[in-house]
Write a structure and sequence with these properties.
Blueprint: H1 2-23, H2 29-66, H3 71-81, E1 84-87, H4 99-115, E2 124-129, E3 132-139, H5 142-153, E4 160-163, E5 166-167
Parallel strand pairs: 3-4, 3-5
Antiparallel strand pairs: 1-4, 2-3
């Protein structure tokens, strides 16, 4: 019995010593400098990412305005025609579209929709025929219709985007 009690006390003492050793404040100037450098670099990276995000927002807003894909434009066109249509300016020497280009464009658009946190790739159906993309399904707002159309218009091989997306 004495051996058991002695073993328990010895274990408690060793455990307390190990705990103290592991939690003792052992910061050195090198560690502090490394922590400061890491914090500084993390702050710079955060600022860069935030600035890039703002530039992307501005670029998207400019595209939406250029293609007349603002919320009010979309709502007006939906009310008048029940669908939204936008065409790209044709390039000189535009390549002929075929089934492979259409399939590729559809795949890229679906991937971009899936990558966008605001848009649902499952809620938006995409079909492409001879460079004409048709988007159908439902989205949460008119802004998202414009965003989906802008994503589609950016894809190479797309001449026109027709949206029958509904707000729901």
């Amino acid at each position: 019995m004495k051996t058991l009690i002695f073993g328990l006390l010895l274990g408690i003492i060793i455990g307390a010593g190990g705990y103290w050793y592991m939690t003792a404040d052992r910061t050195t100037p090198d560690i502090q400098k490394a922590e400061e450098r890491a914090a500084s670099q993390a702050e710079k990276a955060y600022d860069s990412v935030r600035e890039a995000g703002e530039q992307v927002k501005e670029a998207l807003a400019a595209k939406l305005e250029a293609f007349e894909l603002r919320s009010e434009d979309i709502q007006k066109e939906l009310a008048e025609q029940g669908r939204v249509v936008r065409r790209k300016a044709r390039d000189i020497g535009e390549a002929a579209t075929d089934a492979a280009v259409d399939s590729r464009a559809t795949a890229i658009i679906k991937a971009r929709l899936a990558a966008d946190p605001d848009l649902s790739a499952l809620g938006i159906s995409v079909s492409t025929t001879k460079g004409q993309v048709t988007l159908s399904g439902t989205v949460a707002s008119a802004e998202l219709i414009g965003k989906a159309m802008a994503l589609a218009l950016e894809v190479e091989g797309v001449r026109e985007v027709v949206s029958t997306l509904q707000i729901g």
